[in-house]
Amino acid sequence: MSRRARLVAHADWSASTAARAVVLAEPRASGGWWLRLEAPERITELLATPGALIGVDAPLGLPRAYAEARGVASFRAFLAALPPEDPFWTPVAPPERPSLARPFYPALPGGARRAALEEGLGLGPFAIHLRSCDRASGAQCLFWTLGPKQCGRAALAIWRELLRPRLEDVALWPFDGPLERLLGAPGPIVAETYPGLAYRLLRLPRFTKSRGADRARAFAPLGVLARALGARLEAELEAEARAGFPGVRDHGFDAFVGCLLLLAIVEGLRPAGDPVPPEALPVEGWMLGLEAAAD
Fold this sequence. Notes:
The protein is α/β, with parallel strands linked by helices.
């Protein structure tokens, strides 16, 4: 990657303000990067910073089958046209079934069935509700909002709170072009990341993210990577990382790992990834760093 970002940040975002964390990397005058924990509420300021590359741990895009059923040809245009009061933003609670108008499900756990997505949306088997990058990476269904691996609530929060009000001012990778070209443009860039993919790409040893001791053990290989990237950790972030992020738990861990992955891409240690198949790109998007053929 020949162009430099003015700053790099990764946000592990959630509908709950208590489950949000941001790690920020800024270039050092002498070369390399300074990394620190940033207050989550500063994300709006970062989204207005020219030359910023911001990764978010949530899907950016729609499954192609769903988009075709709704006549959506562009995720960006769909998001821009969706009013704040639209039913789309409100997950469905059982026993009511989801629909094309309200695909996120379930709002409550009792009586929730994955088959309800198939029955309510009428698109086919559950796998058709996955995007191409979800299948390639092993990620979860965008519309499912239950359990620790769900990503639907984070997507709704990011789309509604962070992206939709700023769509005219931010570039969305890969919808708006290759990363290197976007880094040469004046505005900030937002890209989707996936922690499970980042663990594999950064070659972390097998661990259980919910265990603080496992997160602490992961600091050794992550510290080696940080040094290879010329990245120095400010005291608070280093103390949290060494201890397994007891303060911000796995949210802080994922923000840290995601920021290192972004730096590895910016510094040329990892490719940005090539969206495949190209016909799905305008609506489905892609995960930064994912190479379908290799991974």
